Request: fold
Amino acid sequence: PKYIEDFKDAYPLNLVAIADKYTLNTMFGSREDIVKKRGEMKVLINPEDARARNIHSGDLVCIYNDLSSISCKAEVIDTISAGCAGISGVYESSHNGETIQLNSLHHPRLSDIGAGTTLNGNYVEIKRK
Reply:
């Protein structure tokens, strides 16, 4: 084995896909009661990163990289590491009105071991709308 440095690009925030306790996967997306409990899509951002971008909880933000951009509200929270942004759950257009979803920000490249997904190896920037 050898160390292979993490992929890094021009965007400063590592986008982390977080499992949601209500909608762990798309199988639960058809249960309106569960989708309602989960609530609207939010991007979680560390207070330090939020201050640098003048973002406050509840602000509408744009999350983007070279692949795509999506919009949602921000939640400033100290349980996410500085340098990371997190989005919890799987959302469909019918849930949040957006035609482009979170997966559009994920690069299609494969991991070096096992040719698996690089779901948490994607970088973005966030700005207020």
Q: What stands out?
A: The longest helix spans residues 32-38.
